[in-house]
Automatic annotation (TrEMBL):
One cellular component (GO) term of this entry: cytoplasm
The entry's keywords: Cytoplasm, DNA damage, DNA repair, Hydrolase
Keyword hit for Hydrolase: yes
Reaction(s) catalysed (UniProt annotation): Hydrolyzes single-stranded DNA or mismatched double-stranded DNA and polynucleotides, releasing free uracil
Main localization (coarse): cytoplasm
Domain Uracil-DNA glycosylase-like, chain residue ranges per copy: 49-211
Organism: Polaribacter porphyrae
Source organism superkingdom: Bacteria
Name this polypeptide is given: Uracil-DNA glycosylase
Amino acid sequence: MNVKIADSWKNILQTEFEKTYFKELANFVKSEYKNNTCYPKGKDIFAAFDFCSLDDLKIVIIGQDPYHGPNQANGLCFSVKDGITHPPSLINIFKEITTDLNVDYPKSGNLEKWAKQGVLLLNATLTVRAHEAGSHQKKGWEIFTDEVIRQISNEKENIVFLLWGGFAKKKSKLINSKKHHILTSGHPSPLSANRGYWFGNKHFSKTNTILKSINEKEIDW
């Protein structure tokens, strides 16, 4: 695995790439991609960092694992490529946006346009074997992405963290809540959403209200 990460992130993450755990992780990922079908494509593994520079960062959304079906994962959590059927969690995210902001349901599930506005769409695990959810968990990715969250908390101010579901909520311990904004709710997956833990959280309008209050440009969700 060649680590090609955007320059703005290199400064705060370079030391991670030199650690033993990361070298072992890189070897594991290289072997997996060589011997199995894995997602996203190798060039998209660090896409979340490519589309959203540290300097422009406003929002962090944390996912768990990339999609493991063909042509779905594009390196941004919850996002799929143009023309790909929207997975259930993404459908519920878009449903909440339509009611929260009174806008039309988006045609494309590609969230690159969010990322380009300063939304870091970070999966805790950045790779997965095809059709095997969680297959690359506990190999070192979580150590790396926890450090990303920790560094953002240290280096930045007034970032809005959207923590959806139990897994993401646990990341709040890495964030200094005195200098950042943390919004939590249930996960947008059907299991959680249909039990009433997702719909009506108004996270998209609440985020824009926070951005407005600190004189930052609102996100065009």
